[in-house]
Amino acid sequence: QAPPSEHPWILKNLLEIGWHPVFLPKDVGDTFFQDFSNNLLYSVFHYMPLPMASADNMQDAFECYEQANKEVAKVILETWKPGDLVWVHDYPLLLLPNLLRKKQPQMRIGYFLHIPFPSSEIYRILPVRAELLNGVLGADLIGFQIHEYARHFESACVRVLGVHSNDGIVVRGNDHCTITTCPIGIETNRFVKALETKEVKDLVAQLEQDYKGRKVLLGFDRFDHIKGIPHKLYAIERFLKENPKWIGNVVLLQVASAWNKTSTSSRSESHMGLNRQTHEIVGRINGRFGTLSSMPIHYLQKNVSFHELVALYRVADALVISSVRDGMNLVAHEFVTCQQDKHGVLILSEFTGAAKSLGAGSLQVNPWNVQKFGSTIRYALEMSAEERERLHKYAYRYVMEHSTASWAHRFLGSLEDIQPRHDEKGTGMNLPTRLNIPKVCKAFRHARHRFLITGLGGTLTPNVARDRDIKRTPSYHSKLNQISTKVRKLVQKLANDPRTTVVVLSNATRDELIEAFGDSEVWLAAENGFFLKRGKDDPHWHALFDSIDFSWKSRVKKVFTYFMERTPRTFIREHETTCSWHYHDAQRGFADKQANDLMIHLRGGILSNTSTEIQDTSSAIQIRPVGLSKGAATVKIFQHYLRWWQKKVVFTTRGITATAPTTSTSTSSSSSSSKATIDAGADDDEDLTSTNKTTNSNKNNKIEAAAVLPSLSDDGSLCTTTTTTTTKKKKKTSSAASSSSLSTKKIMNKNNTKRPNTQEAIVPSSKISSCPTSSSHDAVHASSSSSSSPSLTKNDNKNNEDNNNNKIKKKKKKKKKKKFG
Hints:
Elements: H1 7-16, H2 26-45, H3 52-56, H4 58-79, E1 85-89, H5 96-103, E2 108-112, H6 120-123, H7 129-136, E3 141-144, H8 147-161, E4 164-166, E5 169-172, E6 175-181, H9 188-195, H10 198-210, E7 215-222, H11 229-242, E8 250-257, H12 265-289, E9 297-300, H13 306-315, E10 318-321, H14 331-337, E11 345-349, H15 354-357, E12 363-365, H16 370-381, H17 385-401, H18 404-417, H19 437-446, E13 450-454, H20 474-480, H21 485-496, E14 500-505, H22 510-517, E15 523-526, E16 531-534, E17 540-543, H23 552-566, E18 571-574, E19 579-582, H24 588-606, E20 612-616, E21 620-625, H25 630-646, E22 650-653, E23 656-659, E24 676-679, E25 703-712, E26 718-727, E27 757-760, E28 763-764, H26 794-820
């Protein structure tokens, strides 16, 4: 609130004592502290209804809140040095840890919340719930007053952000945040010393004289809804009504300290209503049970000095705390410290944090149970001296052992001992080296051939995988692959360059990739790279992996269906090569239990003795064949590209022929044997190959090759087929034994030397559904000879022998012409 002209003077004086001020514009400061922090966050964190006036201006208030946190972060970054610890406090600075973490990954950051953290059901009403949680999770250590608040925070992180939480550690990507419980205390020595001062002793003597012969109940609260002052007054009224003998013999001294001035009408109106209600109750009780000489309630709505407060603590026979929700309430600790001689009774609401630590040394009440509350007051006033001493002894020992100094020592000690896991060294993983953009661009410009592989969802489309506000349905996943027109044009422009090949590798289906880039030169690798299509001119999809057994899918789908029917808001997503059960939007605790049960069913039952693997994330369980991953597909796609670019291969299937660009190389083969390789859609010698060796016992030039290939049946289903290829040199045509046979042509290089015959299995681009494949997982190697082929007759052998003799004669004539010509 200081004017800008005074900022230099304030900065100079505070720096002399080691303080670094943060100056905010008045409008930003008011909105940040009053509107967003006190009116909104404070209300929700204390389980109070969110005012609609605050909700209506939420975004504007949050922008001021974010700006204030950035200003604080700026000052800290200017003064921080390696080795320093940063300790952030309370709800006005929820965004600060993550802001600091982004700038200094090595910074050691602790965060402590002094007020309650609500249950996830209450917290989720905040429109900026995810932003606030992500801000706090930038800390290495997050502290709460009691275990209940820590549990609520972990639950909110899991339900809102979808992160993992286990045994006090929240895992968000590479960030590991430790959650701890560390109840705060008070400076006990300050109160002990104050009791010995003359000022306090004089005030104590005066109060004892004023209330001589009467029991004194003390209430000291900040004037706020959460303190439950009306609840306390109703309990006193009920107590006096049911116990008339105490009328005139007991007095309640209720001090309501003033709240800071507010800048919003909603806050003022709310407190004006509370003020009217409180005065009405006090007036009614005093008018009903008061006399000319005494009143049962002395109500004072003002701030009192420290010495006056200590004197009140010393005089009181019991302290009544009726908060409906409170982070800790250190008034209880202060009262216990000042009652070492008198052993006053502590009546404590069970909804305060202090009730968890001082519970054994106090009488706990539910502020809403007025009848029980009134009877507890009577019990405290009539309690024996021995029981009062026993309760006070326990509470006093705890308060003295858990002072402010010990609290700070415990928290900072834990922060120093924690191994930071927000940076690359702390993750325990070998992370990839950061891409050198200028170097890559330079190499790209000078390269003769460029080969780019990119993802789709989260790469070419916005990354919304962790947005818990989006409801994930089966149709939602297809929408993730819908890219913007601008991005599509940029990718197509790259792909149209003759020197550049762009591959989009995604777990999306073939239809989804066709919809995104089907009319461009972009290569499409669908189903994590199982299928490959080389641009719009390629009419076929090519299978890059070996023949794979998909018979497990029907059994897995039955189990998934069983759990989907019993887990609300879950669904099944089935691809041609994978099957997954998604539980993003299900109730996290129940869904996690269901997911664990599902894993047990899968591992111990239907997936045993199958070549499958389970991919378990925090939101889905996916079953896929072993080895089918984007990493393995990347290698196969690159190998495919190299062969496709270097060789000229003729593909013939059902009358369709396609030719790829190539550079010729010299190869040699013997006339007595030839080798034909059938590749499952990728020209990959490592993938589903079959070597066919022909025998020359009868000098037969017929070549046969067979292989088990993943292909399509007539109805479009994925299945395993055995392909046999037969080629005669004499006719240079296939035997046409079946309509699905592949024909092989011999390709001669520039030196007229024979090259190995290479074939590629084509997967038609029709829509398919998975079906069981053959039980064989390996390529079938078949050798053909005159004795093993029933199609070879004696006449055939004789004709073949004559043909060979004629060819030998022709070669000799050519050699003579070359020699003498």
